[in-house]
Amino acid sequence: MLSWLAKTDGVAGAFIKANRHPSGGNCFVLTTPGGKKLAGGNGPQGAEHALKLGFEQWQKLSEAERKNLPPGQEIQPPEAKRCAPPPGGLIVATYVRNLKRDADGKLARITRDDIKDRKRYPDWSMVYTEPARFNLWLTETEWKSLLPAGADRGKVIEVPEPIRRRIFCYHLADGTYGLPGHWQPAHIRSGTMSLTVEETSPLLRLRLRGAALLATDADLAKAHHGYDVKLDGLLEYDPAKKRFTRFDIAAIGDCWGGDWEGGRFKRPGRAPLGVAFQLVPGNSAVDRVPPLVHMDRKQVYDAYFR
User: Fold this and answer.
1) What is the pLDDT of residues 208-219, one digit of tens each?
2) In this structure, are residues 179 and 224 in contact, taking their beta carbons and an 8 Å threshold?
3) Distance CA 154, CA 76 (A)
4) What is the DSSP string of 75-94?
5) DSSP state of 128
6) What is the DSSP string of 185-236?
7) Handedness of CA 241, 160, 214, 296 (dihedral sign)
8) 90-110 confidence digits (pLDDT tens)
9) What does pLDDT average to over the chain?
10) How confident is the model at residue 121 (pLDDT cuts 50, 70, 90)?
């Protein structure tokens, strides 16, 4: 993880390389803005240790050391720009969650008691019962392409193919175990997504409906991983503010298989998986996390926006 994060800070990753903990990844390091390491730690008490020692060292620094970067330090290499949301773009949070059906067949959360059943949940821990958080990015040109020309009530428009494919491939993926793979365009066995104008004033209100069948093989009996999903949502655009104020979508369907190797965290047969989409302001650190782990790489970045 540090190897690609290093590309986004300092000249040739100097900032992170100078401050990495001897143990490597999964650690906590406290530094000054200029890159001076104050403390580091790993393990269960690593963060607590680093904070205690680090803030003791922080109190000993001069005001200049606390605020200033080294003279001439470059902090925006090309890779960093690919890890930042597109200017004027839209950030939509996605929450991916494993679900179950209760005795009445209704969707419900998976509980701590449920995962005691090792036949149904063979290698699960509690973390897989909680939603995983990711982000969908749309460029300014892309989100504007969702606004219909001549928005008469009842008008139906198809969601542009690049946006539809991005949502299908990257944001209908089972990422509940942390670092998801993604569907290839060839895995989209079928897929539709449209917007219907419900209101035009004072807000433009668009109803989104869609469906997709995603599978690693055209013969579903041979597909080790798949997702048969339907989407329903509501988007609202404020003409006065010239921006979307709502971007709510729920995607629910049956998923089968585990990760992209068909191994970890899978359940027997098909099981419900849900994905919720929600517009966020983009002013917090978690809102600005790139959609993909290796977004700094040009090939990955270009594939996402292709």
Assistant:
1) 999 999 999 999
2) no
3) 46
4) ---HHHHHTSPPTT-EEEEE
5) G
6) GGGEEEEEEEEEEEE-SSSEEEEEEEEEEEESSSSTTT-SSEEEEEEEEEEE
7) negative
8) 999 999 999 999 999 999 999
9) 85
10) confident
Is the distance from CB of 255 to CB of 275 less than 8 angstroms? no
Q: Which two tokens stand for residue 268?
A: 């027997």
Report how far residue 67's alpha carbon sits from residue 138's, in angstroms, rounded to the nearest whole number.
34
Scan for tokens 């594939």, then name that residue: 303
Each as own residue / partner, the long-range contacts of residues 205-210 (CB below 8 Å, 24 or more positions apart, any chain) are: 205/234, 205/235, 205/236, 206/146, 206/148, 206/234, 206/235, 206/236, 206/237, 207/232, 207/233, 207/234, 208/159, 208/232, 208/233, 208/234, 208/235, 208/249, 209/233, 210/159, 210/164
Which two tokens mark 227? 């997702």
Domain assignments of the chain as residue spans, ordered by start:
2-77, 90-305
- CA dihedral (221, 134, 141, 242) in degrees, to 10, reads 130
How far is residue 210's CA from residue 191's CA, in Å, rounded to a whole number? 7
Tokens of 139: 């460029």
122-169 pLDDT, tens digit each: 877 777 788 999 999 999 999 999 998 887 899 999 999 999 999 999
Between 3 and 54, name the one with better pLDDT.
54
Query: In the structure encoding, which two tokens stand for residue 245, read together?
Result: 């104020």
Whole-number Å distance between alpha carbons of 23 and 42: 8
